[in-house]
Design a protein that fits this description.
Largest sheet of chain B: none
Oligomer: heterodimer
Number of helices of chain B: 11
Distance between the termini of chain A: 36 Å
Helix content of chain B: over 70%
Largest sheet of chain A: 6 strands, mixed
Radius of gyration of chain B: 21 Å
Number of strands of chain B: 0
Largest interface: A-B, 25 and 24 residues
Strand content of chain B: under 5%
Shape of chain B: globular
Strand order of the largest sheet of chain A: 6-7-8-3-9-10
Chain lengths: 242, 233
C-alpha cells in the first residue's frame, strides 16, 4: 500500500481550474520533488494533502484511507502531515522552544516537561538548540526555517510537506535549511517538496515531477529528469533555472 | 456677593471621606466593567469571525445595537427595565446586591464590549492569515488557534485603542450617578448640594479623573512596550 495516493484530483479557485486531474502515488520513505513555473498548481497540490486546500473532485488517500472521509478528524490528520511554509510563519509572540511545544501540549495534551525535552532534541537535530529561549525575531531566516521544521516534526508526522522552504531565504542561508531537509530524507521521512533547489533534488529526491497548468507533465528519477527531459516545456524551464 | 473659595472644606473631614468613597466606587465600577467588557468583547469578536452564520448575525447585531444607542439610555434601560428582560432569578439576586451598582456594571460592560469587540476584530485582521494557517496546520482547532496564537498577538497590537476604550469606560462611569450609584461625580454633586461649593468639589473630582486616567494609560503603555518588540513577521 502506498503512503499517499492522489486519484484524479481537481481543484478550482472560483473559475480558475488550478489542479486538472492529478494522479500520483508516493511510497513510504519516498522523497518527491515538485517543480514548475509559478501558478502551475504545485503548492495547491501539496496543500491538499493536509486539507489546507479543499478539493472539488477526486480522491486523496493517506495510508489507504481517504482524507476526506467523514470519520477523519481534520486536526488529527494535520498532526500526521507536517508542513513547512515559504515564509516560516513562526509564532512571533512565543519563544523558539514554545513555538515547538505549543501543538504537542495543546493538541496531544502532552506534559510540558516531556514536550520540552522532545522539542530540545528536535532543535538539536536541526542545529539550533542554543537559541531555544530566543524569540523568532532574533533569529536569521535560515534559523527560523529550521525552527519551523522542528515545529512540524514535533507532532511526529508520517509525511512532511515543504512549500518552497528556501525561496524567502538569503542565498547563504539556503544550505543550512537544505541540510536539515537532507538529514530528514536520509532518516526515511516521506517528503513532498516544492522547491527549485535542483542540487537538493539531485542528491536526495527519488523522483522529480514537473507541473505546468495544473497537470503533471513530466515525471522521472532525478538523473533522468535533469539529463534527459522529454517534454519541451520541461527543457525550457530547466534552461531557465539551471 | 463674592464667591469665596474654600478648598479646605472639600478636602477635609466628612466631605473628603465622601470623595474617597466615591473614588473607590468609581474604580470598582470601572474595573469590574472593564474585565467583563473585555471578556464579552472577545467572545463577540471571535463569534463574528467564526464563520458560523447565526453567531455572525448575533454578534453583528449586538455590536450595532449597543454602540449606536446612547449610553445614558442604556443605563436607564438596565436600571428600569431589567425586570422585563432578565430572568427572575437573576433579578432577585441583583436586588439582594447593590442593584444600582449592578445595573451600572451591566450597562457599562455591554456598551463598552461593543466597541472593544470591534477593536479586537480589527486587531485579529491585522495578524497575517498565515498565522492562522500555520497553527491550524499543526492540528490546533480554530478556537485553540485563536486562544494561543491569534488573540495574544492581536491584543498586543490593539493596546493603544484599548486604552482609549478603558479610559472612556472610566469616564463614562460618571453617568451612573443618574441611577444613584454613589461614585465620584455623585459625591461631588452631593457636596455641592450640601455646601454650595460646587466649583471646588468638581475641580477636585476632575483632577482625580485626570490623574487616574493618565496613570493607567502610562503604565499600560510601558508594560506593553516589551511585548511589541517581538511581534514582527
Amino acid at each position: 500500500m502506498a503512503m499517499i495516493e492522489f486519484h484524479d484530483v481537481h481543484k478550482w479557485y472560483g473559475e480558475f481550474h488550478v489542479l486538472k486531474g492529478i494522479t500520483q502515488k508516493v511510497e513510504k520513505g519516498e522523497v518527491l520533488v515538485i517543480c514548475g513555473p509559478s501558478g502551475s498548481g504545485k503548492s495547491s497540490f501539496i496543500r491538499c494533502l493536509n486539507r489546507l486546500e479543499p478539493i472539488q473532485k477526486g480522491q486523496i488517500l493517506l495510508e489507504g484511507k481517504s482524507i476526506h472521509d467523514k470519520s477523519v478528524d481534520v486536526n488529527e490528520l494535520r498532526t500526521e502531515v507536517g508542513i513547512v511554509f515559504q515564509q516560516f510563519n513562526l509564532y512571533p509572540h512565543l519563544s523558539v522552544l514554545h513555538n515547538v511545544t505549543l501543538a504537542p501540549t495543546k493538541v496531544r495534551k502532552m506534559q510540558k516537561a516531556k514536550a520540552e525535552s522532545i522539542a530540545m532534541e528536535l532543535l538539536e537535530r536541526v542545529g539550533i538548540h542554543d537559541q531555544a529561549r530566543k524569540y523568532p525575531v532574533e533569529l536569521s531566516g535560515g534559523q527560523q526555517q529550521r525552527v519551523a521544521i522542528a515545529r512540524a516534526l514535533a507532532m511526529q508526522p508520517k509525511v512532511m510537506l515543504f512549500d518552497e522552504p528556501t525561496s524567502a531565504l538569503d542565498p547563504e542561508m539556503i544550505n543550512e535549511v537544505l541540510n536539515a531537509m537532507k538529514d530528514l530524507a536520509r532518516a526515511g521521512m516521506t517528503m513532498l517538496c516544492v522547491t527549485h533547489e535542483m542540487g537538493f533534488a539531485r542528491e536526495v529526491a527519488d523522483r522529480v515531477i514537473f507541473m505546468d497548468g495544473g497537470k503533471v507533465i513530466e515525471e522521472a528519477p532525478p538523473d533522468v529528469f535533469f539529463s534527459n527531459p522529454r517534454h519541451e516545456r520541461t527543457q525550457a524551464f530547466l534552461r531557465e533555472i539551471l | 456677593m463674592q464667591y469665596t473659595f474654600d478648598w479646605k472644606l472639600v478636602l477635609s473631614g466628612e466631605y473628603l471621606r465622601w470623595i474617597i468613597d466615591g473614588v473607590v466606587v468609581t474604580c470598582q465600577l470601572s474595573a469590574i466593567s472593564l474585565v467583563l467588557a473585555m471578556a464579552i468583547g472577545t467572545l463577540i469578536a471571535v463569534m463574528r469571525l467564526s464563520g458560523v452564520r447565526p453567531l455572525v448575525w448575533f454578534s453583528a447585531g449586538f455590536t450595532e445595537f449597543f454602540r449606536n444607542t446612547p449610553l445614558l439610555v442604556q443605563i436607564f434601560f438596565w436600571y428600569f427595565g431589567s425586570d422585563a428582560v432578565l430572568p427572575a432569578v437573576v433579578n432577585q439576586w441583583l436586588y439582594k446586591q447593590n442593584f444600582e451598582f449592578a445595573a451600572g456594571v451591566i450597562a457599562l460592560s455591554v456598551y463598552t464590549a461593543a466597541f472593544i469587540a470591534e477593536e479586537i476584530r480589527s486587531g485579529i485582521f491585522s495578524i497575517p492569515r498565515t498565522q492562522l494557517e500555520a497553527s491550524r496546520a499543526c492540528g490546533l482547532t480554530f478556537l485553540q488557534a485563536m486562544r494561543y496564537v491569534i488573540l495574544p498577538q492581536a491584543f498586543r497590537i490593539i493596546v493603544p485603542p484599548l486604552i482609549s476604550q478603558a479610559l472612556n469606560l472610566f469616564k463614562n462611569s460618571s453617568l451612573c450617578m443618574t441611577i444613584g450609584v454613589m461614585e465620584l461625580t455623585y459625591m461631588a454633586r452631593q457636596i455641592e448640594s450640601y455646601t454650595f461649593h460646587g466649583f471646588e468639589a468638581f475641580t477636585v473630582s476632575t483632577l482625580i479623573y485626570l490623574t487616574i486616567s493618565l496613570a493607567v494609560s502610562f503604565s499600560i503603555t510601558q508594560y506593553n512596550r516589551h511585548f511589541l518588540r517581538t511581534i514582527r513577521y
